[in-house]
């Protein structure tokens, strides 16, 4: 399964945990995370698990169904 991530900007608290876990995929733009590269499924899952705000939503790239990280 190929995964994609969506960032819920209204939920993002800007802690940067996702940037710490997946620095090649996420950056902080001001106080909101932004995805700057596709990232591996593992990197996306790890970032979503690390997010204290639950602001990173993982989706199946084909169906766009939400996937438990
Ligand atoms: S870990 Fe979550 S709350 Fe923190 S910057 Fe990333 S998306 Fe935002």
UniProtKB/TrEMBL annotation:
<keyword id="KW-0411">Iron-sulfur</keyword>
<keyword id="KW-0003">3Fe-4S</keyword>
<keyword id="KW-0249">Electron transport</keyword>
<keyword id="KW-0408">Iron</keyword>
<keyword id="KW-0479">Metal-binding</keyword>
<protein>
    <recommendedName>
        <fullName>Ferredoxin</fullName>
    </recommendedName>
</protein>
<dbReference type="InterPro" id="IPR051269">
    <property type="entry name" value="Fe-S_cluster_ET"/>
</dbReference>
<comment type="function">
    <text>Ferredoxins are iron-sulfur proteins that transfer electrons in a wide variety of metabolic reactions.</text>
</comment>
<dbReference type="InterPro" id="IPR001080">
    <property type="entry name" value="3Fe4S_ferredoxin"/>
</dbReference>
<dbReference type="Pfam" id="PF13370">
    <property type="entry name" value="Fer4_13"/>
</dbReference>
<keyword id="KW-0813">Transport</keyword>
């Amino acid at each position: 399964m190929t995964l994609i991530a969506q960032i819920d900007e209204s939920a993002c608290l800007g802690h940067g945990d996702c940037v710490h876990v997946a620095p090649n995929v996420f950056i902080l733009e001001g106080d909101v995370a932004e995805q700057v590269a596709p990232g591996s499924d593992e990197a996306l899952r790890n970032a979503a698990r690390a997010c204290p705000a639950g602001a990173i939503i993982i989706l199946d790239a084909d169906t766009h169904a939400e996937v438990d990280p």
